[in-house]
Design brief:
The structure is a single chain. By secondary structure, this protein is mainly alpha-helical. The chain has one domain: Four Helix Bundle (Hemerythrin (Met), subunit A) (Up-down Bundle), CATH 1.20.120. It has five helices and two strands; from the N terminus they run αβααβαα. Strands 1-2 form a two-stranded antiparallel ribbon. Helix 1 packs antiparallel against helix 2 (about 45-65) and helix 3 runs antiparallel to helix 4 (about 125-140). The chain is elongated, with a radius of gyration of 18 Å.
Length: about 180
């Protein structure tokens, strides 16, 4: 088996992981909506889906079309980083439980989660996305894909984080104070 074939197998596993994320997100969205959750930021979601799809397509196409070689030091280091990003992502999913989603859905009255990776970082899931988006293409020397995704993702994450932070702040402001007199 060639290194490129092994890389395609890795990308197929990442694609399967993405499908598992979407299944989890759909189940969690139903949970949130049943509890009065409100989705915000729908406008940027299609761009996010397109960008992540383009990442996987670029990872497949660039090494093949540009005849990129597997560079062991870079490839193994990038693979370790991509796997660490997956671990961080699923730690976020486990920590948030049914509140985790690929969409921004806020359930009124729920406190912010401050455990797991959220006790260390404000947006650990996005750290995982940034690391994976840069590392996964570099596993097989897809430089252009790594740079293009990272650049576009920085713009998208600026919008996404602002949307999420605003929605969470509005939800907290609208929530009644625990223990307040009526």
């Amino acid at each position: 088996m060639t290194q490129y074939t092994l890389y395609l197998l890795l990308l197929a596993l990442v694609a399967a992981e993405r499908i598992a994320e979407l299944v989890t997100a759909r189940r969690n969205a139903a949970w949130s909506l049943e509890r009065g959750g409100r989705e915000v930021g729908r406008g940027h979601y299609p761009a996010m889906v397109a960008l992540h799809t383009a990442l996987l397509a670029g990872c497949v196409l660039e090494p093949w079309l540009a005849d990129r070689a597997f560079l062991p030091v870079l490839g193994w280091t990038a693979l370790a980083a991509a796997l660490a990003a997956q671990g961080l992502r699923w730690w976020c999913v486990a920590t948030l439980g049914p509140r985790w989603n690929t969409r921004v859905i806020v359930v009124p009255g729920l406190p912010l989660v401050a455990s797991g990776p959220y006790r260390l970082l404000r947006h650990p899931n996005y750290v995982a996305v940034v690391v994976e988006g840069f590392a996964l293409p570099l596993v097989h020397s897809a430089w252009w894909t790594a740079v293009a995704f990272t650049t576009a993702n920085a713009v998208l994450l600026k919008v996404r984080i602002r949307c999420e932070d605003t929605a969470l702040a509005e939800s907290r402001a609208a929530a009644p104070l625990v223990g307040a007199a009526p």
